């Protein structure tokens, strides 16, 4: 235990800290296969997205294979809109696609099952309008639009047995082990995050249930982004948000804490910006975070571009 009264989770598969008794239900989780296909990039009819001043611009960003954007890379500064790192996959059947969205978790293994890259292994890194998967650059060169990718979905239903007030979402046991979780003497679970976002800048996505895709921060005020240091955010950064209740939807609640993940890049659209995917949320004081600038899944999972 440190002098600050915090103990850390050991590395490896155990969820239990020495004498702390933090235990998950991972032994009860169902692990199953879901499948998607590498998607074609798409644009809105007319092609333009609009800046807050009304100026239209045609930009790439969503879906397909991004050869030069991976987790660990910058979230701001792209000549693109909602840039999705790595490979975006979907299923043409609506219900199967929802299963791909709802069952897959961050850190799940992804295996290419058709095409020139058959057998290559990647990692699920986000969920936007498509599921996002990281592969090594040599794999990206061999992937084709339409290639099948099977996800070993594992993590849906994950919970802390002694902290039932913390809702866990989209978190695989692999990610859980990598987060560097800590426990204070008062029982609070502490998650290292790269930065804190004030809830006042959270925008589009508040209308969605928190089991589905993400919530964008509103990045239109560039001076504020620089003042807050938000413009230094990287794809894959872990994020802390106070007074954000993401247990069911995404709403304001005094004292709530949410832990999230930056899954896509910035946007020029009003009310949009980098996408923040919910990982944990609690309203009763059971959850907190501390700032650790290197808290990014690229480093934690050994993928993408590690700082």
TrEMBL record:
Q: Where is this region: Disordered?
A: 1-20
Biased composition regions of type Polar residues, renumbered to the chain? 1-11
Query: What InterPro entries is this protein classified in?
Result: DUF4438_C, DUF4438_N, TM_1086_sf, TM_1086_SG_dom
Q: Which domain of life does the protein's organism represent? A: Bacteria
Which lineage ranks, top first, belong to the organism behind this chain?
Bacteria, Pseudomonadati, Pseudomonadota, Alphaproteobacteria, Hyphomicrobiales
Where does the record place the DUF4438 domain? Answer: 50-177, 180-301
The entry's protein name is: DUF4438 domain-containing protein
């Amino acid at each position: 235990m440190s002098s600050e009264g915090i103990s850390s989770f050991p590395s490896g598969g155990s969820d239990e800290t020495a004498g702390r008794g933090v235990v998950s239900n991972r032994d009860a989780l169902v692990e199953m296969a879901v499948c998607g296909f590498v998607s074609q990039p798409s644009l809105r009819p007319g092609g333009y997205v609009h800046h807050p001043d009304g100026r239209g611009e045609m930009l790439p960003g969503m879906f397909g294979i991004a050869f030069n954007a991976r987790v660990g890379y910058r979230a701001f500064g792209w000549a693109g809109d909602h840039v999705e790192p790595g490979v975006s996959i979907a299923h043409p059947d609506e219900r199967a696609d929802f299963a791909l969205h709802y069952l897959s978790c961050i850190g799940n293994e992804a295996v290419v099952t058709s095409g020139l890259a058959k057998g290559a292994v990647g990692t699920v890194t986000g969920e936007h309008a498509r599921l996002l998967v990281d592969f090594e650059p040599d794999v990206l060169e061999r992937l084709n639009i339409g290639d099948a990718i099977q996800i070993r979905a594992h993590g849906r239903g994950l919970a802390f047995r002694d902290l039932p007030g913390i809702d866990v979402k989209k978190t695989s046991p692999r990610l859980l082990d990598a987060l560097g979780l800590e426990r204070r003497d008062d029982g609070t679970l502490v998650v290292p995050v790269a930065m804190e976002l004030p809830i006042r800048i959270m925008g589009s996505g508040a209308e969605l249930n928190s089991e589905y895709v993400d919530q964008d921060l509103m990045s239109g005020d560039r001076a504020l982004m620089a003042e807050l240091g938000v413009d230094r955010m990287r794809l894959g950064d872990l994020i802390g948000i106070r007074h954000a209740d993401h247990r069911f939807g995404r709403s304001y609640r005094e004292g709530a804490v949410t832990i999230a993940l930056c899954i896509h890049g910035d946007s020029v659209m009003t009310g949009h910006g980098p996408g923040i995917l919910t990982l944990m949320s609690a309203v009763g004081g059971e959850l907190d975070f501390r700032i650790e600038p290197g808290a990014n899944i690229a480093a934690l999972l050994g993928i993408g571009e590690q700082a």
